[in-house]
Amino acid sequence: MSYDPIQSNHGHQFYGQDANPSYYQSTGFITPAKPIKRTNNWKKFGIPVALLVVAGVVVGVVLGLRHHNQTSSASGSSSSSSGSAAGSAGGRAVLATGTNTWFLPEYPSTTNTAAYTTPTLNAALSSWPTDPFAPSSPSVLSVRPDRPRLIAPAYKWAALPNLVAKDPYLSLWNATIFENATQWDALPAVVYFMDGDSGILDVARQVKQRVKAFSYVYRMTNNTHWVDRTWEELQNAAGNGSSTWTSTTPDDLWNSAHFLDTAELSAAYGIAYDWLYDLWSADQKAAIRSTLVKFGLGPGVQAYTNSSVFTGWWRGGGNGFGNWNCVCNNGLTMASLAILGDDTSGFASQLLGLTVDNAKANCAFAVSSDGTWSETADYWYFGTTSHAEMVSSLISATGSDYDLLKVNPNFYKTGLFHMYGQGTTQLFAWGDNGPNKYTATANSLLLYADKYNIPEYALYQRDQFDAGDPWSMFWYNPQTSGAFWDNMPLDYAFDNNTDQWMSMRSSWTDPNALFVAMKAGTLVGHQTHNDLDVGDFVLDAMGTRWVGELGDGDYRSPDYFSNDTQGSARWMYYRKMTEGQNTILIGAANQNVNAAPKMTSKSSNTTQGSSTVFTPSKDSTAYFVTDMTSAYLNANSVKRGIRLLNGRKQVLLQDEVSSNTTIMWRMHTNATVSASGTTATLSRDGKTMDLSILNAPDSATFTTANATRLNTDVTPPAPDQPNPDITVLIISLPAGTYNLQVLFNPQWNDGTNFVTPPSVLLDNWDLASHN
Ligand SMILES: *[C@@H]1O[C@H](CO)[C@@H](O)[C@H](O)[C@H]1NC(C)=O
Ligand SMILES: *[C@@H]1O[C@H](CO)[C@@H](O)[C@H](O)[C@H]1NC(C)=O
Ligand SMILES: *[C@@H]1O[C@H](CO)[C@@H](O)[C@H](O)[C@H]1NC(C)=O
Ligand SMILES: *[C@@H]1O[C@H](CO)[C@@H](O)[C@H](O)[C@H]1NC(C)=O
Ligand SMILES: *[C@@H]1O[C@H](CO)[C@@H](O)[C@H](O)[C@H]1NC(C)=O
Ligand SMILES: *[C@@H]1O[C@H](CO)[C@@H](O)[C@H](O)[C@H]1NC(C)=O
Ligand SMILES: *[C@@H]1O[C@H](CO)[C@@H](O)[C@H](O)[C@H]1NC(C)=O
Ligand SMILES: *[C@@H]1O[C@H](CO)[C@@H](O)[C@H](O)[C@H]1NC(C)=O
Ligand SMILES: *[C@@H]1O[C@H](CO)[C@@H](O)[C@H](O)[C@H]1NC(C)=O
Ligand SMILES: *[C@@H]1O[C@H](CO)[C@@H](O)[C@H](O)[C@H]1NC(C)=O
Ligand SMILES: *[C@@H]1O[C@H](CO)[C@@H](O)[C@H](O)[C@H]1NC(C)=O
Fold first, then answer.
1. 214: which of 230, 263, 518, 594 fits an S-S bond (Cβ 3.0–4.6 Å)?
2. What's the pLDDT tens digit per position in 200-236?
3. How confident is the model at residue 317 (pLDDT cuts 50, 70, 90)?
4. Keyword Membrane on this protein (predicted)?
5. How many CB atoms lie within 10 A of CB 675?
6. pLDDT of residue 83
7. Quick one: DSSP state of residue 146?
8. Does residue 15 or residue 523 have the better pLDDT?
C-alpha cells in the first residue's frame, strides 16, 4: 500500500473513507441501484390498528424556526423526559405501515388527524428512570462506579424489558437486533481483508456491528453463547483466532495508517470489554486490554503526540473537520473509558485528556451554521454516528458531554440537513457518497431529539428502516409521540456560504410527491469529497428520480483525492467534473474551484398539518436563485433559478447566461428520453415527464448524449466509470446572452391543468410573480 500522496500533502491525507463502490452498490443500503421490495418488518408485528393517540399540549411551533434554548444536557441527567408536554394517555403504535422500494416509510393515507398529533413528549407514557449517577462536578477521568459505562448503564438495561413490552418501536428494534445477531452468529468470524487505500475499514465496522449485537443479545438473554461468540470475534481481530488476521505490518494489525480502522476496532473492543465486563475472566480482560493498548490506544497516543508520524493528520489544523475527526476521537474515547481504572499503560487517561477537547474544536464544527455537514449527505452518517456515540458515552460514563453538543451553537440543526436532504426517492447526495454504512445509521437523530428537545427528529427516524440498532434502544425517548410532519415546513433554505442549498417538496408523506433541491456553495474545503457542481439539482416526482446524481467515481482511481486545486486530477473524472453535473457548462470547461456563489430564496412557508392527505394551495410555492457567475472562468454573467409552480405541480428552471463562448445546459437522467425541438418526454417506471423550452431563443433545442466525457476533454489518469442507462439531456447554445427557461411537467394523471408561466427576470422573481 502506498501512502506517498499523504506524505506529499504535509501529513494530510485526502483519500477519504474509501469504498469498494461495487460492493457498496450491491448492498443497496442507501442508494440501491435497483430498488427491491424490502421485507416489511411491520407486517410481522401487525399493521397498527388503533392510532388512538390524543393530542397533547401543543409545544413549539415551526421546527427549524424554534431552537429549544434549554441548557442542554451538559451534566447529570440521562436522556428522558426533559421539560415540556403533558397529554392524555393514548394507544401506542408504529405509525408507518411499511417500507417502500426506496427504503422509505409508508404512511397510511388518511385525514384522521387524531392519529397524527403534534410532536411532543407525552408524560403519560413510560419513561427511562433517572440516572442514579449524577456527579456534581463531572470529570472525564471520574467514571461511574458500575458497569456498563458506555451508552447503556445498568439502570437502563434493568428498565429496558418493560419498555420494550410497552413500546412498539423498541419492540420492533429489539427483534431486528436479535435477527441480525442470529444471522451473524451463523457466519465465520469476520475475515481480514485489506482493501487498498480504504484499509480494513469495512472489516473493522463489521466487527463493531457484531460485537454490539452479540453483547446486546447476551444482556437480554443471559445466554453465554453470545459471550463466547463475542470472544471469538475479539480473538480473531487480535490475530489470535482460527481465521487468523494477517497483515504485512503485524505490529500494526489495526492499520493505524488509515486511522478510521484503528478507531472503529478500538470502539468495538471498548464495547465488548464494558458491556460484558462481568463475564470475562481476569485473563480475558487482560488479553483484551493488551491487544487494545497495542493496536488501538498506543497508535492513538502516537497519532496525538509524535510529530514524526502522519497517522494523526485528522486531529485538526484546518483539515480536521469532518467525519474523520469524529470517528477517530470517538473510537479512542469509548475504548479509553472502557478500560480506565484497569489500564496499566496510562494511555487511556492520557487520551481522554486529549480527545474531548479536540473533538470540541473539530468534529463539532463539521456542521455549518445552517446545519449542513461539511462533507456530503452520506458522510453525515459517519460523522454524526460517532459524535453521538462520543456524547452518549461521555454522559453515561462520566456524567457530562463537556459541551460537545453545544460548543457549536448550530449543531442541533444538523437533523434538518438530513431530513430535508431526503427526497421522495433518494437523498440529494451531491459529491462522494462514501463506503458501506455498517455501524453508521441515522440513529444519531434519536439522541439529538432527546438532548436538543426536538421530538421531530426522533419521530422522523423511528419509522426509518435503519432504526433497529442497539444504540436506538438507549437513545430513543419512549415518551416521544406525534407526527414529525405536523407543522413541518415543506421547504428549507440552507444559506451558509459553504453549501447554499434549498429543499422544496409538495408533501412529507406522499411517496409520489414532488421534490426539488438545488445547490450552489463553495467547491473547496469539503475534504475533497465535492464535485464542481454549483447549480446542480435533483428532481423527484411520482415515486421516480427524474434528474439525478452520478455519485462516486472509483475512490482508488489515481489522484482521485489528490487535492481540490483547479488543476487536480480529481476534476478530470467525468463524475466529478462540471459536465457530469446537472448544471450549466460554459466553454466545455470545469467551474472555477474558487467560486463564491450568492443565493436568494423564498418560500410560502407552507406546512402540511397533521393529515397525510394534503394538497398545497395554488399559490403555495418556493424558489431558489443563485448568481453563479463566479463559478465560471469564462462567462460574463450566469444566474440560475428554480421554482415550484401551480400549487407545487410543476417546476420552472431558468438560466440567464451571458458568455463569449459556448453554453451547454445539461441534466442526467435514468429515464428514456425522446427529444424533439423544444420539447422532450422522459419515461421511466411507467411514468412520464414532459419538458419544454419556453420562449426558446433561436437554435435552442433539446438533444441527447451518453454520459461520457466530451472528446475535447483532457484524458484522466484512469478511465471513467461507465454510466450505462444514463442519458444526458442537453441544450447547446453558441456564445451570446440568453434567458433560457425549461418547464418540467410531471404527468400526474390526476387532472392537473398545467400552466404556462410568464417570463420574469430572476431579479424580479417573488412569491407571487408567477401566479
Ligand atoms: C427481544 O426479541 C427477542 C427475539 O424476538 C424476543 O425473544 C425477546 O422476548 C424480546 N425482548 C423483549 C424484552 O421483549
Ligand atoms: C437486520 O435484520 C433486518 C430484519 O430482519 C433485516 O431486514 C436486515 O437486512 C438485517 N441487517 C443486516 C445488516 O443483516
Ligand atoms: C439476566 O440476569 C440478570 C442478573 O441476574 C437478571 O436481572 C435478568 O432478569 C436476567 N435476564 C433474563 C432474560 O433472564
Ligand atoms: C492475542 O495473543 C497475544 C499474543 O499471545 C496476546 O498478547 C493477546 O493478549 C491476545 N489477545 C486477545 C484478545 O486474545
Ligand atoms: C515517533 O515515531 C517514529 C516513527 O514511527 C518512531 O521511530 C519514534 O520512536 C516515535 N517516537 C516516540 C517518542 O514514540
Ligand atoms: C458557515 O458555518 C461555519 C461553521 O459553523 C461558520 O464558521 C461560518 O461563520 C458560517 N458562515 C456564514 C456566512 O454564516
Ligand atoms: C439512476 O437511478 C439510480 C437508482 O435509482 C440512482 O441511484 C441514480 O442517482 C440515478 N441517476 C440519475 C442520473 O438519475
Ligand atoms: C494537486 O494534485 C495534482 C494531481 O492531481 C498535482 O499535480 C498537483 O501538484 C497538486 N497540487 C497541489 C497544490 O498539491
Ligand atoms: C417565511 O419564513 C421566513 C423565515 O421566518 C420569513 O422571513 C418569510 O417572510 C416567510 N415568508 C412568508 C411568505 O411568510
Ligand atoms: C467577452 O467579450 C467582451 C467584449 O470583447 C469583453 O469585454 C469581456 O471581457 C469578455 N468576457 C470574458 C469573460 O472573457
Ligand atoms: C450511446 O451508447 C450506446 C451504447 O454504446 C450507443 O449505441 C449509442 O449510439 C450512444 N449514443 C450516443 C448518442 O452517442
1. 230
2. 999 999 999 999 999 999 999 999 999 999 999 999 9
3. low
4. yes
5. 18
6. 24
7. S
8. 523
In a domain, 539, yes or no: yes
Please work out whether the CB of residue 222 comes within 6 Å of at least one atom of ligand 3.
yes
| Pocket lining for ligand 2, CB < 6 angstroms | 39, 41, 176, 179-180, 183
Each residue of 353-385: pLDDT tens digit? 999 999 999 999 999 999 999 999 999 999 999
In a domain? residue 35: no
**Per-residue pLDDT band at 696 (split at 50, 70, 90):** confident
For the CA of 704, the closest atom of ligand 11 is: 13
Is 181 inside a domain boundary?
yes
CA distance 297 to 302: 9
Note the pLDDT tens digit of each residue in 458-510.
Answer: 999 999 999 999 999 999 999 999 999 999 999 999 999 999 999 999 999 99
Q: Whose CA is nearest to atom 7 of ligand 3?
A: 158
pLDDT of res. 194: 86
Pairwise CA distance, residues 427 & 464, whole Å: 14
Q: How many domains does the chain have?
A: 2
Which ligand has the shortest distance to the CA of 219? 3
Give the residues across from 98 on adjacent strands: 106
- What lies within 8 Å, CB to CB, of 556 at 6+ separation is 18, 196, 197
Same domain? 546 vs 432: no
Q: Is residue 653 scored above 70 in pLDDT?
A: yes
734-771 residue pLDDT tens = 999 999 999 999 999 999 999 999 999 999 999 999 99
Rounded distance between C-alpha atoms, residue 386 and residue 735, angstroms: 49
* Helix pair 225-237, 282-292: axis angle to 10 deg: 30
Q: Which residues pair with 63 in a beta bridge?
A: 66
Q: What one-letter code names the amino acid at 361?
A: A
Considering only CA atoms, which residue is closest to atom 3 of ligand 11? 706
Looking at residue 383, what is its pLDDT? 97
- Contact call for residues 204 and 191 (beta carbons, < 8 A): no
Q: Is 605 in the pocket of ligand 10 (CB under 6 A)?
A: no
Ligand nearest to the CA of 600: 9
Which ligand has an atom closest to residue 168 CA?
1
Q: From the CB of 161, is ligand 1 less than 6 Å away? A: yes
For the chain, first and last CA: distance in Å? 60
Distance, in Å, from the CA atom of 383 to the CA atom of 493, rounded to the nearest integer, reads 22
> Residue with the nearest Cα to atom 1 of ligand 4?
240
Same domain, 506 and 451: no
223 lines ligand 3 (CB under 6 A): no
Q: Is the Cβ atom of 396 under 6 angstroms away from ligand 8?
A: no
Q: Is 248 in the pocket of ligand 5 (CB under 6 A)?
A: no
Please provide residue 395's backbone torsions phi and psi, each rounded to the nearest 5 degrees: -65, -45
Query: Does ligand 8 lie within 6 Å of residue 432's CB atom?
Result: no
Residues 257 and 376 in one domain: yes
Q: How far apart are CA 98 and CA 39, in angstroms?
A: 9
Q: Are residues 412 and 538 in the same domain?
A: no
CATH of the domain at 718: 2.70.98.70
The pocket around ligand 6, CB under 6 angstroms, is made up of 365, 368-369, 410, 496-498
| CATH number of the domain encompassing residue 166 | 1.50.10.100
Q: Enter the C-alpha cell of residue 610.
A: 397533521
Q: For residue 192, what are the domain limits?
A: 41-80+95-117+153-481
Residue 160 CA, closest ligand 1 atom number = 13
Instruction: Verify that 516 and 404 share a domain, yes or no.
Output: no
Listed residues 420, 446, 481: the one ending a domain: 481
Asked if residue 613 is part of any domain, the answer here is: no
**What is the Cα–Cα distance from 347 to 342, expressed in whole angstroms?**
11
